[in-house]
Design a protein that fits this description.
Layout lengths: L1 E6 L3 E4 L5 E2 L2 E4 L9 E3 L2 E5 L15 H16 L8 E9 L1 H15 L4 E6 L2 E14 H6 L3 H4 L5 E6 L4 E7 L2 E10 L1
Parallel strand pairs: 1-7, 7-9
Antiparallel strand pairs: 1-2, 2-3, 4-6, 5-6, 5-8, 8-9, 10-11, 11-12
């Protein structure tokens, strides 16, 4: 199952579920609510208070836990039973200016975790992440209209997020990473 997740500093986004704030709370005991995730004997719920801006999202497990919320929602929307062990191919993105320095670490962050077991809405889920691919975020937005971009010699793609504004030059449909930046 291919799952694409945009790990924004303000919001997490997937294809089939509404965006949610990149914030969570951790509890030792199960809190009140419906959308509760249990992972490694801790309970998590989403919060409207986003995680403080992090240039490097691999410093702790918070963005991994947020990814579990996204994966769980995608599984639920696709009406997969979740009872079998799924194999996930994960597509993730980084701001284009951070891509060169961080993409390998971001791929490693999600890779080699073995069997991931957790519960979401009291439903047990388990999967292996068998492949992780990382893309520049502005480029990922542009590929949705690649046929039109290839017709133009130069296109400036701008991705305005909650904490960064990213831009990336496309030349005849190819990313020019010499003309890109992420402005905080």
């Amino acid at each position: 199952m291919l799952i694409a997740i945009d790990h924004g500093n303000k919001q997490m986004k997937t294809v089939h579920c509404p965006p949610f704030v990149s914030g969570l709370t951790e509890n030792a005991d199960r809190p009140f609510g419906r959308d509760i995730l249990k992972y490694q004997d801790k309970y998590y719920s989403l919060s409207e208070q986003r995680i403080p801006y992090k240039r490097n999202k691999t410093e702790d497990d918070r963005f991994f836990i947020l990814t579990l919320f996204g994966i769980a929602e995608e599984i639920m929307k696709r009406e997969t039973s979740g009872e079998e062990t799924m194999r996930i191919q994960l597509a993730v993105g980084l701001p284009p200016a951070h891509y060169g320095a961080q993409n390998q670490d971001f791929v490693r962050y999600f890779s080699n975790r073995g069997l991931v077991r957790f519960e979401y809405r009291d439903k047990p889920l388990m999967f292996y992440i068998e492949d992780v691919r990382c893309y520049p975020q502005a480029y990922a937005a542009a590929v949705t209209m690649m046929d039109r971009l290839m017709e133009n010699p130069r296109v400036l793609v701008i991705d305005i997020g909650g904490f960064t504004a990213d831009y990336l030059m496309m030349r005849s449909g190819r990313a020019d990473l010499a003309v890109c930046d992420s402005l905080e």
